Amino acid sequence: MAQQSRTLWIPVGVIVLAVVIDVATPTDVTSAPLLMAAPVSAAPLMLPGGVIAVGLVSMAVHAGLAWVDGTFGWHRGVANQVTLLAVTVLAVFINRSLHRQHARTRRAIQVAAVAQRAVLPRPPTRLDGLEIAARYVPAEEAAMIGGDLYVVQSTPHGTRIMVGDVRGKGLSAVNAVCADIGAFRYAADEAEDLGQLVLALERALVREGGRRGGLEQHEGFTTALLAEFSADLEVVRMVNRGHPPPLLLDVHGTARVLEPSQEAPPLGMITLGDWAFPIDSFSFPPGSTLLCYTDGITESRDATGTFYDAAARLPDLLRRRTGAAPSATPSQTLDALLRDVRRHAGGKNHDDQALLALHRPPV
Questions:
Q1: How far is CA 132 from CA 9, 127, 327, in A?
Q2: What pTM does this model have?
Q3: For an engineered disulfide with 352, which of 57, 68, 146, 187 has Cβ 3.0 to 4.6 Å away?
């Protein structure tokens, strides 16, 4: 709001500048061309009434200056007044056109936001004893959604999650995200264990790639981290398919990278051969937070080309954030991480960023 108020002074500043120039120059020099810029500068900043008011003030100022200089006549004064009137009318038409365009843009953004919530719904803040937070930051702000994803689901086999990053950009990536989430939603309830869940996802992605054809049939894949929590939340089991490993934050704020015991390729590459993938189990004591993210975080670089290291930076961030207070909430953890990543990268996001934090409250 303050910035908008400052921009409204632009037309006023143009008029004041025109007066100063006219007073400081000989009488045969007119500032009428500069006065004509005032209603044009008001067009994207004001309502139509404001634009008309700026135009009328410009005409009045010009008439007054020309009268003082003794130059208000048919050849210069009246001609400039007619030109100022024409420019004001033109500025009103520009103003109306810009407002219509802005209205269409706002409607498009609203539709995109609804589509984003439909494709990538925000998980519940509490589920099966876990406190949950998620964030999605697109590389292009206007895009709203891209190829990164997260999904959390309560199943008969415990709470299961997936965080992933599909190959490609644009609409094809969004289609792949829809296919991934849809396949997970169904398979997470049906699969008895993570191994069966991974195989079900593999088959679904291969079928979807065949339907789309082209590169997606042979080169479509998704890096993914799949995890499930035991009923008592004491253990979290994971399968990592070519995805950045998550962090485990303990009750003291210490960060531990949960590396897979064996590397495995992304999902969707089953046609290239059979791949072994381990199911790793990790202790998840009270007060712990599982922090998952896509490579938009790990591949963020500073001016020297240094990659962002969440494990090294996040504990200190959280200690400064909470001090002697209780541990940070999942939302606070994600917000602190995103701010620090943005500072590290100089305020620019070069890739989509999807983050998911799951916290087990202390007993």
A1: 46, 7, 14
A2: 0.71
A3: 146
